[in-house]
Amino acid sequence: MQAPNRYNPWLLYLVPNATGAGSVCSTGTQGLGITFYDDKGRALQCAGAKVYLGQIERPNTGNTVPRRMIAKIIKTSEKLKSGHYPLIFSPTALAELNIYSRPWTVSVSGSNSVFVPPREFQIYFPDSPSGSPRVNLMLQKATPSSMEGTKTVQMCLYDGDDASSSRTTLTLMDEGSPAPGRPAGQFSVYRLGGNKTAQTDRVDYQVSIINPTTGAREQVSQGDAIVWNGTAKRAVQQLVSLPGIPGLSHCLPAPLTLRTPAFGIGDKSAGRYGGQLKIIYRPSTT
After folding, report:
1. Is the dihedral of CA 213, 219, 221, 222 positive or negative?
2. Per-residue pLDDT band at 170 (split at 50, 70, 90)
3. What is the pLDDT of residue 238?
4. Are 161 and 250 in contact (CB under 8 A)?
5. Of 176, 171, 275, 286, residue with least CA distance to 231
6. Per-domain residue ranges of the chain
């Protein structure tokens, strides 16, 4: 009678050729670290870690339970400048079958360099990470004969240098079409295919923004600059994952609220309305 198959663990030793604190291992590049994870998402220690694999007890079959080891490049607290960097890091993976003491080969592959893009400002919208958001003003009836709306847009400002800018300047503008009779400082959307100079083909809205340094809501007037000081403080920033930038980066949260005051439904032409809201962002270099 044949003995049943039994599960026996392989014991995999990960021995990184690097120094580091805890699980953040050195890559040889200032500002970049590397962390290894097992297939359950647990971070492995730089000084050495044990990962259990599995195999059927019959050693000649070669049947193994597949497992993975994942490495992630991360940012450290040091300054990270743009450029191509070699990763001076050669991880060694050693394994042995703990019953039969047979060696088992582990291959480690991947890029040995990383590219950090040049400093470039970007405005990050978490709800639309791949580009500029399309925002619905969320108009609804206020009374049987009028409509109004409010919409908040999450926005985070990245200065290209891990939010080290001590001063931030923002200017908001719409597409600049004539808007006779519009209240001062407001913005507009226009009926597609309509007459942009006619109030019947235009809906006006207000914009406010949360000042990240004070938490206060500030009203925005079209074309007028908003200036915030003290924006390099970590306490007022958020950690986010930005497209094209390795690891987590600090950015400055600045949620926008678009509010459309009540207007008469009969005062506007029926149709689809749209427009652009331009946000001009200027971080300081210090």
Report:
1. positive
2. very high
3. 92
4. no
5. 286
6. 7-116, 122-283
pLDDT digits over 255-282, tens only? 999 999 999 999 999 999 999 999 999 9
Question: Which stretch of 19-23, 49-53, 172-176 has the lowest confidence by average pLDDT?
Answer: 49-53
Quick one: pLDDT at residue 19?
65
| Tokens read off for 193 | 């295919």
pTM value surpassing 0.70: no
* Residue 251, strand partner residues: 238
Cβ contact 173:186 at 8 Å: no
Q: Cβ neighbours of residue 171 under 8 Å, at least 6 residues apart?
A: 223, 224, 225, 226, 279, 280, 282
> Bridge partners of 126?
none
Sign of the torsion formed by the C-alpha atoms of 122, 127, 133 and 138: negative
SS3 253: strand
Sign of CA dihedral 193, 195, 196, 201: negative
Dist. CA 197–CA 182, nearest whole Å: 11
Angle, CA of 239, 240 and 242, to the nearest 5°? 140
| Top-confidence residue, 105 or 219 | 219
Which residue from 280, 275, 268 is spatially nearest to 187, judged by alpha carbons?
275
Taking residue 155's Cβ as centre, other Cβ atoms within 10 Å add up to: 22
DSSP lists the bridge partners of residue 187 as: 205
In angstroms, the CA 47 to CA 28 distance is: 16
- Chain centre to alpha carbon of residue 79: 19
pLDDT in tens, 77-130: 666 667 777 776 655 555 544 444 455 445 555 666 777 666 678 899 988 876
Retrieve residue 47's tokens.
Answer: 């000084």
Report the 10 Å Cβ neighbour count for 175: 14
CATH superfamily of 122-283: CFA/I fimbrial subunit E, pilin domain (2.60.40.2040)
